[in-house]
TrEMBL record:
InterPro entries in UniProt: TFIIIC_Bblock-bd, WH-like_DNA-bd_sf, WH_DNA-bd_sf
Species per Swiss-Prot/TrEMBL record: Methanoculleus receptaculi
Listed name of the protein: Lrp/AsnC family transcriptional regulator
B-block binding subunit of TFIIIC domain segment(s): 11-66
Region forming the signal peptide: none
Length: 113
């Protein structure tokens, strides 16, 4: 992926509700034709979705980043699931002893491999 494609994807991902293609090329400071080619490559890669949108009678497209499946291994340390999932405590993650114990297990598992 080119640097400009990564930048475009970053802009699209930073707008939860999506960004209009007619605004994207302005945000990236490129011409609309170049933007269309970048959007096409991102669509072909399955990274974004494009929805037809009318703004003041002018047709454009709303671009949204596709959600990617999360690797379940990212929330496991050995057999232990990330404790923050389902936690109802309001705490400071940096000072949470339960989370720190889980991180220790994760580091220990990494060290043993």
């Amino acid at each position: 992926m080119s640097e400009l494609e990564e930048e475009a994807l970053g802009v699209i991902q930073s707008h939860r509700e999506g960004v209009l293609q007619s605004d994207l090329w302005k945000l990236l400071d490129i011409d609309s034709r170049k933007c269309s080619r970048i959007v096409k490559r991102l669509l072909d890669a399955g990274l974004i979705e494009r929805i037809e949108f009318r703004s003041d009678g002018i047709k454009t497209y709303l671009l949204r980043a596709k959600k990617r499946a999360v690797d379940p291994g990212l929330i496991l340390a050995g057999e232990e699931v990330l404790p923050c999932i389902g936690c109802d405590r309001e705490c400071d993650p940096e000072g949470c002893t339960i989370l720190l114990d889980w991180i220790y297990l994760l580091a220990l598992e990494e060290y043993q491999e």
